[in-house]
Each structure stands twice: as C-alpha cells, then as structure tokens.
Amino acid sequence: MIDIRRVEKAFGAQRVLQAVDLAIAPARVTAIVGPNGAGKTTLIKMIVGLVRPDAGEIRFDGVPIGDGHAHRARIGYMPQIARFPDNLTGAELLAMLTDLRGAACAARRDETLIGALGIERELSKPLRVLSGGTRQKVNAVIAFLFHPELLILDEPTAGLDPVASSTLKDAILASRGAGRTVLLTSHNMGELEELADDVAFLLDGCVRYHGPVHELKRRTRQSNLERAIAEVMLRGVAA
After folding, report:
1. CATH superfamily to which 2-235 belongs
2. Got the DSSP string for 31-71?
3. Going by C-beta distance under 8 Å and a sequence separation of 6 or more, which residues neighbour residue 36?
4. Where exactly are the structural domains of the chain?
5. Which of 54, 70, 175, 192 is exposed most, by the fewest CB atoms within 10 A?
6. Phi, psi at residue 127, to the nearest 5°?
C-alpha cells in the first residue's frame, strides 16, 4: 500500500532520515520502532502529507503523495498529542470534520468507538474541560471515524486507562481483520508484540530491520520483541 523510496529529511544540520526504503504491506499491522529522535514521527507525518521529504518519494497505492492530497481521505490519523479547538464540544468537532470530509466520507461515518470507549456524554462538553485521557479517546474516535483504509496511530494508548487501552487495541485488531492497514508507533514493546505483524526498526534515521516480528525474534535468538530490538541496537541483525 505504501512504498517509501530513498527518502531523506533534515531539519537544519540535523539529518533525521537517511535514504529510507520501506514497503508497508496492506491488511497488516506494521510497527515503526526506534529510540527517541530516530525519525519515527517525521516519517509518519510524511505519509500523511504534513512534512515533505528533501529527497526520495513516497507512493500511496502507486500514486506519489506529492502529486496531491486525495489520499488523505483514505487515512485515519491519530497523532501522539492532538490539538483541538478548545471552544468546541466533542460533538461539534466531529460534525465539523464530517463537513470538511464531504458527503462520501460522511456516508461511511463509523461511531462504534464512541460507545465502546464510553464517551457519549463527554462529547457534549467543551474540549477544554476534558481530561487528558478523555481527549485521547476523542483523538482515537477521530482516527477511526470515517472507516479509513489506512490507520496511522502515533503512541495510541498513551494516557489511556487499562479498559480504554484494551478497547482500542481490540479496534486495531478488528480493523486488520477487516482488511485495513495499520501503521503505529509505541514505546511499549509488549503492546507492539500483541498487535504487530511486521516491525520496521529505525536507528539514526536508517532502517536497520524491516520484516515480520517472528522473523526478527528468530534472527536475534530472543524470546520477545523488546529483547530482540535491544539486540539489534547492540549487535545488529544476523542473516
């Protein structure tokens, strides 16, 4: 679904991504992992179209992302920290986004997660009075709202209680089961091992491993994803 070819990005003198090649397979959950500053969020923002690469190309179903913004209607994006208009209620925000998306997206609006997360009453309140956890739930609802073909989730369970976290993880797995593609980041390796089919490990702006989680564990001779990633950071990946 997504082909990333020789992508580079620098902010001033800091090189964030260096000749990144990556292919995100459809109908699978792919985790992008790496230490702070590895370029994970920058890469995600490039796919959404919020950041432009300095070199290279990103294709969405064969179409270069730089050729337009039509692909965005097929993406549900959950940033790590959402910035909401504080004067709106949650319901008003969802209505505004529905109007902006247009009739085609409005027709497939999916409110399942609203009930699953138990925030029906919270949506009548101004966003500025909501707790951090509730705002994160609204953030998740927006990502799933229009039944997107591609879900991009940046630290999706951060700030959520165990019940809400479990509910969101169930929604992610259900989306994959329905043939949707999920791209996510998290520092919680146990969570990623529960959710991800594939993992792309970034270090110093380069892809050090990309492939199935079980293959990474086999090649590093480690029993879980956290130890496998630590092994890659220390010694690389054996053939």
Report:
1. P-loop containing nucleotide triphosphate hydrolases (3.40.50.300)
2. EEE-STTSSHHHHHHHHHTSS--SEEEEEETTEEGGG-SGG
3. none
4. 2-235
5. 70
6. -60, -30
